Amino acid sequence: MSKNAREQAVLGAVRERREKVNAAIDEDLPAQRPERLYEAARYLLEAGGKRLRPAVLLLTAEALADVEPGSTDYREFPDLTGGDVDVMSAAVSIEVIQSFTLIHDDIMDDDDLRRGVPAVHREYDTETAILAGDTLYSKAFEIMLQTGAPPERGMGAMQTLAETCTHICEGQALDVDFETRTDVLPDEYMEMVELKTAVLYAAAASIPAVLLGADDDTVEALYDYGVKAGQAFQIHDDVLDLTVPSEQLGKQRGSDLVEGKKTVISLHAAEHGVDVEDLLDADDPDEVTDADVEAAVEQLREVGSIEYARECADELVAEAKAHLDVLPDNEAHHRLEQVADYLVERGY
Amino acid sequence: MSKNAREQAVLGAVRERREKVNAAIDEDLPAQRPERLYEAARYLLEAGGKRLRPAVLLLTAEALADVEPGSTDYREFPDLTGGDVDVMSAAVSIEVIQSFTLIHDDIMDDDDLRRGVPAVHREYDTETAILAGDTLYSKAFEIMLQTGAPPERGMGAMQTLAETCTHICEGQALDVDFETRTDVLPDEYMEMVELKTAVLYAAAASIPAVLLGADDDTVEALYDYGVKAGQAFQIHDDVLDLTVPSEQLGKQRGSDLVEGKKTVISLHAAEHGVDVEDLLDADDPDEVTDADVEAAVEQLREVGSIEYARECADELVAEAKAHLDVLPDNEAHHRLEQVADYLVERGY
Questions:
Q1: Distance of CA A188 to CAs A175, A181, A264, Å?
Q2: Which residue did the predictor score with more confidence, A203 or B109?
Q3: Highest mean pLDDT among A174-183, A243-252, A331-340, B258-267
Q4: What interhelical angle do A186-193 and A151-179 show, nearest 10?
Q5: Of A107, A131, A176, the CB nearest to B172
Q6: Most buried one in A18, A98, A209, B30, CB count within 10 A?
Q7: Using CB atoms, which residue from B145, B173, B176 is nearest to A162?
Q8: SS3 B158
Q9: CA gap A24, A9 in Å, rounded
Q10: What confidence category does residue A146 fall into, taking pLDDT thresholds of 50, 70 and 90?
Q11: Nearest to A92 by CA among A116, A75, A105
């Protein structure tokens, strides 16, 4: 299948689920009192987002249950032992966690834009943004508790969710720590990416297996699929930050370089003699022009750093797809392979 | 029993448990990588704290299981159906949540001091403090997952924990909202206090009942004990903020008045003609002297507002103690009654 046909297939699958996910978000996280708090908490969720992680979760459930994609009620989804489970709640929970992390990350990184709209701490204020994130945090746990799965599986899902949140915090701490370090090793970077970004994909892919009653090997393989796909996603994100126009990114292009973020690209470039810290000499992403970014990217391209990052991402995608062998051979399984490809082929 | 003897009995019971709780915190939340993150997360827990909520949780377990207080291993605590449960993990979880809320509250209120040491966002920085709070948040859920209780009880405890966290956020949002409102009603204030402060006592008192397998009526009564005792605690805290020297409080005396916080005291005073907003005319708690605070308190005393708050707190304590009737008549039960009394008698 061509890259373009694959992208269309993935985007179609994501889109088909997005409307249902959005309706479920409104059901599970309604606007309520105190109004301003829940408005702020729902603000980014309402601003858009592809709902990629919920789509991965729902597709994994469909692959495991061996049902035709899109044919089955996600709120009463057949498990592997003759019962049914609300996998949609799990999908909403993962998206709510994602939204909480974006709100707090934007405060910490002092980013102004997200999804093309002001970050929550800009639209409201820092206090409200902290509290909105904290509210989403516990709401995600409440929502994950309502899957109706047998309690031992419910506890398993809660365990994965809690550990995932801890890992995201640890990853974010490492990311901040790396900004002021010049001796970051590639392995350290990959660990940081696993913790900060990939574990949420791993949770999205493995939690449905836990909830539906799959065996431990299946749960573990799907977790590993998520880790590898998530690492590939982050590396591709780092590429996009440098190569996609700001309007399309929904935030200032090149902001990672200005903020001194370590990426596969910057680590490779530094190893190959590029003075990465002086590539974009500004204190704030708003101070750099597109021409500045273009000149910096040209230098990175010349030493092969952009190409190197693409190769890393491709390798991770191949590893991710291999882990899907535990799934039955069906359409949803095939779609999950394409999702992994899409994560490193998407234009933004 | 005299007030003094009662206080000694409570403080003795709290102290006896504190050392075990502190050791359990070190076990369940060890210093680990990334070092700076976990240092910041553990900073307030290490700075002190009475461990009142863990003590309430452990005493409730002891009262329910009808064992001699202090005689039983909290990690392998006898439940009501012949099994055993690690109630200490639940106690640690509650204290970790308390610590997370203090860290984020101090950022939101821009308070400099806590427990006599710099607030986390002062000792470290705001970014680290946000992240340290977020880490404690998920760690509390991880720790609550390790009680070893039967899964359906474990899920019940997780449900209470998640709802409690959501309520705390809602209460904090109302508290902030009230600062700029002049039409706050007493019932709204009491609801805010229930959400912001009391639910964590309610969780501490009811979660052991869930974990040990008590019936729903018992769980509910203990929850209500916690709510009433917690509301009384907060009202007494509001009195202490005005009447106790800064060194003893561990923060600037009178800070609530400067920040425009609504309390039972300020609501009563406003109703009785006091211009509460001008009582302490400063933008920052550091700008007021002890003499300023003393003059303000004198005005509040004259219209009976301080006395009124004390009466409210006493009534709530009486209601709290009545809910303990579901417990067997034993020493731990008696100690929980004394704890409620202590919450409104303590000097700081």
A1: 10, 12, 11
A2: A203
A3: A331-340
A4: 140
A5: A131
A6: A209
A7: B145
A8: helix
A9: 23
A10: very high
A11: A75
Interchain contact A275–B (C-beta under 8 A) = no
Q: In angstroms, rounded to a whole number, what is the distance separating the alpha carbons of residues B234 and B194? A: 9
Q: Is the pLDDT of residue A186 over 90?
A: no
Residues 6+ positions from B2 with CB-CB distance below 8 Å? none
pLDDT at B111: 83
Can you name the residues that pair with A113 across neighbouring β-strands? A118
Q: Calculate Rg over the CA atoms of chain A.
A: 20
State the pLDDT confidence band at A105, using cuts at 50, 70 and 90. very high
Three-state secondary-structure class, residue B191? helix
Residue to mutate among A33, A42, A137, with most B CBs inside 10 A, is: A137
ipTM: 0.93
| DSSP states along B105-139 | HHHHHT--EETTEE-HHHHS-HHHHHHHHHHHHHH
Dump pLDDT digits (tens) for B12-23: 999 999 999 999
Q: Which of residues 143-162 of A touch B (CB under 8 A)?
A: 145, 150-152, 154-155, 158-159, 161-162
Cβ-defined contact of A166 to B130 (cutoff 8 Å): no
**B145/A130 touch (CB, cutoff 8 Å), yes or no:** no
The residue of chain B nearest to residue A139, with distances taken between CA atoms, is: B166
**CA–CA–CA angle B301, B307, B309 (5° rounding):** 115
Whether pLDDT at A65 is above 90: yes
CA distances from B289 to A8, A347, B258, B295 (A): 68, 60, 12, 10
Residue the block writes with tokens 């009192």: A33
Domains plus CATH for chain B?
A: 3-339 (1.10.600.10)
**What pLDDT score does B325 carry?**
98
Q: Which residue of B has its CA nearest to A167?
A: B135
Query: In this structure, which amino acid lies at residue A111?
Result: D
Q: Which residues of chain B have pLDDT under 70?
A: none
| pLDDT of res. A266 | 93
Question: Which residues have a Cβ under 8 Å from the Cβ of B336 and sit 6 or more positions away?
Answer: B56, B59, B60, B63, B205, B225, B324, B327
